[in-house]
Structures are given as C-alpha cells and as structure tokens.
Fold these 3 entries.
Entry 1:
Amino acid sequence: MSLNLCEIFHSIQGESSFAGLPCVFVRLSGCNLNCSWCDTVYAKTESKKVSIQKIVKRVKEFGCSLVEITGGEPLMQGKSADLISLLIREGFQVLVETNGSISINNIPGECIKIIDIKCPLSGESDKNFFGNLDLITEKDEIKFVIAGREDYDFAKDIIHTKLMDNGFSIIPYKNIHLSPVFGKINPNKLAEWILQDRLKARLSMQIHKIIWDPDKRGV
C-alpha cells in the first residue's frame, strides 16, 4: 500500500498541546480546501508515491516517539488510517491534524485527532463537518485559526454552542486552541478578547514560526 507523500521531517512541534516537543512530521499531499491563509500550498501538488512500510522506516530513523500526520489534508487518502495503525503498533504516539471537512470515523481511537474548525476569514467555513464533534474523545483537540474579530466571534459561538454541554466543555478546554494567523493579527489583541470574555480556550502561538523564519520549510 502506498500514499501520496509530500515530505517527512523532524522538528519541534509548533502547535497543539504538544507544542515544544520534538516530533516527526509526515506531510501527505493533496487538499480539498483553499484557505486564505494557507502556509503549505506546496503540499497540494508536490507528491510522490511511497509505500507505507517505507514511510514508517523513514520515521524510525529519527529516533523520535512522537509523530504527526498532516497535510495538505491527510484524510483525503483513505489509506492514511493504515499508516496511523502501523505507527501505533510500532509504539509511536500519533497525532493527525485534519482540516475538519472529512469524517474522522475510520481513524484509530489511540490516535489523537487535532481538528481545525474553519472560521469565516479562511473562506472555507461552510466546509466544516460538525459530525466530527460527536466522534472526538477527551484526548482530542480542536483548533480555530483566527485572522480577525469575525473569526474570534465565530469561534466563541462554536465553543459555546457546540463544545459545551450544560456549562461543561465536551473536551478539556486546555485542548481548545485559538491560533492567530502569523502576521495577520497581533496576538495580544486575541489574548485581550479571550480574557475579556473569560473564554475557556487556550491561546496557541505557532512557535515554529517564532523559532525559525516563518517561510522556512521542514520545521
């Protein structure tokens, strides 16, 4: 079995509750969305067929136990679930980051799902598949990418109406991330909004863009 692969690299996890940890990234090719702020447009077209076994072998060479399957949109390729399953069997902790437009129902339960709920300024908020919220567990994570106030208000509404049940979050609120688009909105403004509204969510910076040049690949 093979997958359309864009790149594999070893870096510091820049987002999610795993931020700051060494991680191997397996970036699969192709995406079904066109987000206005996308920073991995190249993943749509840069592709080579690589067997799942070769991908796992390459991952092992880095000697790192944390792996993220990302894209593009990794769930466009049905066999990505087979890659995740094999990595889990080999003893890796596996994260998958998805744009939230495709069901996560075939992803192994041991895998931590990081679901990006698209906000209006992405241009793709009509593509959200909210059925995924019925499939997540307490270990999974939700991310909102925020480019302006409209996005923040949208995220706040989703948190209150879809991620809360009788006043309690359906996942720990430390796993709900609001991430400012690098260079589009000042993080201190987003921090002010979160504090003013007592919003139960985490301000998440893309720390890899702080450590390295924000346009640098493979980090």
Note: Residues 31 and 76 are 7 Å apart (CA to CA).
Entry 2:
Amino acid sequence: MSRSAGRRHRGRRLALRVLFELEGTDKDAAETLRYQAEDECAPADVTHYAQELVYGTLRHLDGIDDAISAASLNWRLEDIGKVERAVLRLGAFELLFEGGVPSAVAIDECIELSRTYAGDEAAPFVNGVLGRIASGAA
C-alpha cells in the first residue's frame, strides 16, 4: 500500500468513526471529528481527508440514503445495522460524489471497513449494495 493510499485508508476509517458517532445524535460534526482525530492520533492530512468525507456525506445525506435504499434489496435503511449503514453512506458518497476515486477502490475500502467493524458477514452485503450503486442499478 502506498503512503498516500494508507493515509486515505486512515481518513476513511476516521470518517467512519465520526459518521457512526454522529448518527441519531445532535452532536457537532467538527467537535466529533476533532475528538476522534485526537483519539486516533491522526495527522493533519488524514484529518483533512476525513473532514472532506464526513462533510460531503452529511451534505448529500438525503440523496445517499435514497441510493442505499434503492440498492439494498429487501432491506429498509433503518433495519440495516448502524455500522453497515455508516459504511454504506461513506461508500455511496465516494461513488456518487467523488469523481477522483475509482469505484473498485471505494468499494474495496468499504468492504474492509465493514469486515473490521461489523464482521465478515457484513462484507457481502456492503459489496452488493455498493456494487449496485456503482453500476447505476440502484
């Protein structure tokens, strides 16, 4: 893994932690990001990348949730586990709104995050939903 790819991975992991913590609360995104970045000992470039991901996801949340709902066959958004939902939101943001990230990279990163934080059984679900979003089948 290249140094920049490693930093992007760390940024995604940090963004996931922030999105997970923010869901269902009225916590301040900037304060949550600051706290999580401090907890992770994240350098400025990792924190900056996570900030772009978090704020972008929050800014486009309605459209992201619509895409996830359309792509998650037989699952309502509120029935998807909180970790998986946060991973899917992060991945859907990258697929739909971040043109510089190859779809395969965004999906692979989210599969790895889902394995790490939700277990191996979450990976096929995340892969399927994000694959449908990437293909435009959602």
Note: The chain has one domain: 3-135.
Entry 3:
Amino acid sequence: MGTLTPPSTDGRVARRENTREVIIDAATDLFAARGVTSTSIDDIAAAAGIAKGSVYYNFESKAGLVEAIVARNSELMATALREATQGRTGADLRDEVVRALLRLVRDHAAGARVLVTELFRTERSWRVSIERWRSLALSPLIDDMINNGEEPAVADIRAAAIVGATLVTGLEWLLFHPDRSYEQVSATVVNTLSR
C-alpha cells in the first residue's frame, strides 16, 4: 500500500488568501480614515492595487468586507485576551485586559478605529458581528466580576466602562500623543482604573 501524498497546488489558494489580506488591509485603512459609508469599492480596489471585480469575487459586497475585518480583529482580540487573562482574577485580570487591549490598539490602530466607530451604528448589517466582538472584549471582565459576586447587569456596565475607557484612551494616545510610550499609557490607564 502506497503512502498518501497531498495534492499539489498551483498557488491559486495562496494567491487568493494573499489577495484577500491585501483587500482587508486596504479597506481597514480606508474605513478608519473615511468611514465605511464614505468609502467605495472603487476606492478599496485602487488602494489594494487590484481590479474592482477582485473585491467582489473575494467578499461579494462591502458588508462582507466589513464582516471580514470584524472577524479578523475578533480573532486577534480573543487570542490576546485569552493569553493575557489565563489564570488571573480580580484587579490583576482587569489590568491585563487593559494592557492587552492597548497593545491591540497600538498594533492594529486602523482596525480598532473601525470597530469602535461601528460599535455604535446599530442599523448596519454586520451588527451581530460587532456584538460578538463586544462580547469577546467584555466577557473576561464580566465572568470574573460575576464569579466575585457582582450582579450581571452591574458587571456588564462596569466591564463596558473599563473596555470603553481603554479603547478611547488608546485611540486618543495614537492620534494626539503618539510620542508617549505604551508603558506610559498602560501604566496611566491601569493606575486610573485602580482608584
């Protein structure tokens, strides 16, 4: 009996994935700078250096592209928060959530701007994906607070305040104080939330 060998590929799958990533990167930058509504598929295609048809082939619509951006950022955040909070509780968990979110804002600023902006646009077709992203951001804090006796409704509001303050501060840092280091900003936010 012979050994099974994987089918050879001609590079089409890899090229398609690369094209998708180029499109997502271009759209994220444009959506962060102009907003989703003010950015056309033509703008995205031009920024990505590809034909307009390639955008539609890979995403079918602008809404599909926003969904892909939210999904990518949700995966990044879920991984970062899981790693940052593993084995932590209380103030230690909260501080690590803050630090992880600030690193994500620093490393993926355009994606963070898109998500924060779209968080409050309730009429969009990608609302469910944004709500999932919100849930991922808040759940480590909510779960810990509930495990420590907090009422669920209060835990939700407290977690939203922590995450919201962190994200807005992170974006404010990059826009208005880019000369400040991550260490300075994270220490200040952690200290402020500890009071």
Note: The chain has two domains: 11-60, 63-194.
